[in-house]
Design goal:
The complex is a heterodimer of chains A (312) and B (133). Chain A is α/β, with parallel strands linked by helices and 312 residues long. Chain A has helices at 20-36, 47-57, 69-72, 79-90, 112-125, 144-153, 171-177, 199-213, 217-237, 281-289; strands spanning 13-17, 41-45, 65-68, 96-100, 131-138, 156-159, 162-165, 190-195, 241-248, 252-259, 292-298, 301-309. In chain B, α1 (54-66) packs parallel to α2. Classes of the chains: A alpha/beta (312), B alpha/beta (133).
Chain lengths: 312, 133
């Protein structure tokens, strides 16, 4: 699959598949190829495909780490630190293979921009790594827009005729395109200005709101953690204050924090915990404890919106 | 009289207004760290460890670690602790000499959650006992 002149050992192909047979025809040999070379293999794909792979692998399924991406990757921001790098870093010193399917037909309109940015960032996060991450895309059910984005975020595309270089590869453009103003808020959203002195009060307020909205106890803790980390960032790096907004829709509690800061590190919050990561654990925590994180950053400031499912 | 171990003067306790108003936001003292009465050195922290009290917390941990024994913490009156606060606790524990550890009684639920995410392989030098779930 690799161009022999290419010095980067990292491979990141997208598989364009139509139907389960085409899916298995590429993913199964990819997995077997890893097992045959004693390369650790992980699979993180949506439930139905996971079941199909488990069945197709038979006894070999026990030699592969199998994860349901709809749970582990509900928040795309968590996939690099919590799924991909968590696995790859466990096996530093050997090449690894991962099948990672972050986009499926049921992905919400709110989550998709985060999926595209995640795919773009895999290239940065894994540059130079001994790893191959194969990303399947269902051409029958996914929009043309999604497939075009996949061609921009993956240097190689695999189709029924085999692999070819993607001439549309431009991950930075995808990253920039989905850094956009967030979807409208309802007018019923409650708004509070928060500075250092009122962070504690804001935490209390949001927790009380969440409790009334029906968030269960462990999710209330997650909300408390996420809101505190974001407000702390606003106070310490975002100009000393943040604007907090909270509301609910049919499925989620949404909370948004805006400040005057600028997010300049695209991988912020996506590096796994470790000795090299002294600062910036706050965003990593937010990515882990919420169901979706969306961000818009620019010269006028940064807005981070977190979602927590009401019936988790 | 409880002895304050944070090196600052006696602080004002956090007083809560009626339930619908939340904690008083004008209070200076977000965190109090005191030494409990008893034969062994135990610190009790009340309030919250966040951006308003990071330095106080870190100072109290450093002084407790300097004693050179296990550090016992009663956090049952601590409402919240953020990632920087948990990190300070974990790093203090890691630097204790010999097999000494930090024993935490009554940790707030957010502490276990933060530790599970940021230290997925566990923290051997910290024992959580009787934490609030």
């Amino acid at each position: 699959m690799t161009d022999t002149a290419d010095p980067d050992p990292f491979e990141h192909p997208a598989l364009r598949y139509s139907g389960l047979d085409q899916y298995l025809a590429v993913t199964v040999p990819f997995i077997h190829g890893g097992l045959a070379r004693a390369e650790p293999v992980a699979v993180a794909v949506p439930g139905p495909n996971l079941a199909a792979l488990r069945s197709a692998l038979g006894a070999d399924a026990d030699r592969v780490q199998l994860t349901d991406m709809t749970e582990a990757g509900a928040n795309p921001g968590r996939i690099i630190p919590g799924v991909l790098r968590a696995f790859a870093d466990e096996h530093r010193g050997t090449r690894v293979r991962i099948v990672g399917e972050p986009v499926w037909p049921g992905r919400s309109d709110a989550a998709y921009p985060a999926c595209a940015q995640h795919e773009a960032l895999i290239n940065r996060a894994f540059a130079g790594r001994e790893a191959a991450i194969l990303c399947p895309y269902d051409v029958d059910t996914l929009d043309e827009r999604v497939l075009a984005d996949a061609a921009a975020t993956h240097p190689v595309l695999i189709g029924p005729d085999g692999p070819r270089r993607s001439d549309a590869f431009d991950p930075d453009r995808v990253l920039a395109r989905y850094n956009r103003p967030l979807e409208d808020r309802p007018r019923t959203a409650i708004e509070r200005g928060v500075d250092a002195a009122s962070v504690d009060n804001a935490r209390w307020f949001v927790t009380a709101y969440g409790r009334k909205a029906g968030l269960e106890a462990t999710r209330l803790i997650d909300l408390e953690i996420a809101v505190t980390e974001l407000l702390t960032n606003s106070v310490e790096h975002g100009g000393g204050a943040g604007l907090l907004r909270v509301w609910t829709d049919a499925e989620h509690l949404l909370c948004e924090i805006s400040d005057a800061g600028r997010l300049t590190d695209p991988l912020a919050g996506r590096r796994p915990p470790g000795p090299e990561q002294e600062r910036g654990r706050g965003l990593l925590l937010v990515n882990h404890v919420t169901d979706l994180v969306r961000t818009h950053t620019g010269p006028r400031g940064t807005t981070t919106r977190i979602y927590l499912r009401l019936n988790a | 009289m409880a002895e304050h171990l944070d090196g600052e003067g006696t602080g004002v306790s956090t007083t809560a207004r009626p339930d619908d108003a939340g904690p008083d936001p004008r209070v200076d003292d977000a965190l109090q760290v005191t030494r409990t009465d008893g034969p062994r050195l135990e610190l009790r922290a009340a309030g919250a460890v966040d951006l308003n009290s990071h330095r106080r917390w870190e100072r109290a941990l450093r002084r407790a670690a300097a004693v050179g024994e296990d550090v016992h913490l009663d956090l049952s009156a601590l409402g919240f602790i953020d990632s920087r606060g948990v990190t300070a606790l974990v790093e203090t524990a890691a630097r204790l000499r010999g097999d000494h550890r930090i024993v935490v009684r009554g940790a707030p639920p957010c502490m276990r959650r933060v530790m599970a995410v940021l230290w997925p392989d566990g923290v051997p030098a910290v024992d959580l006992v009787g934490d609030r779930r």
